[in-house]
Amino acid sequence: MPRLVVEVVMTALTTIAAALGQAGVLGDPIGQLLVALVVAAIVIVVGKFVLKLAWRLITIGILVVAVFYGLSVAGLV
User: Fold this and answer.
1) Residue 71: partners with Cβ closer than 8 Å, 6 or more residues away
2) What is the pTM of this model?
3) How far are the Cα atoms of 63, 68, 69, 70 from residue 74, in angstroms, in the given order?
């Protein structure tokens, strides 16, 4: 799923960059700043999604190892 998100974001950024380049927005320093801020916002949103997924995987891993450890201490495994 994250790979699909990255591909969609990269396609969108390429399209936006091409459109902005034709519109002349990238020729102005304020336009460049606007584009940089939009790109940073997109990177933050995608990173937030990836970190949310990673946090869930780490939590599941901790629970599985804790259960296995508890069973081994009790002598059941």
Assistant:
1) 77
2) 0.54
3) 16, 10, 9, 6
Closest CA to 34 of 22, 19, 20, 44: 20
Residue entry with tokens 């969108």: 12
Q: Any idea where the domains of the chain sit in the sequence?
A: 2-73
Angstrom distance (rounded) from CA 18 to CA 12: 10
| Residue 37 in tokens | 């801020």
Q: What is the pLDDT of residues 5-31, one digit of tens each?
A: 777 777 877 777 777 666 677 778 888
Please, which pLDDT band fits residue 2 given cuts at 50, 70 and 90? Answer: low
pLDDT band at 3 (very low <50, low <70, confident <90, very high): confident
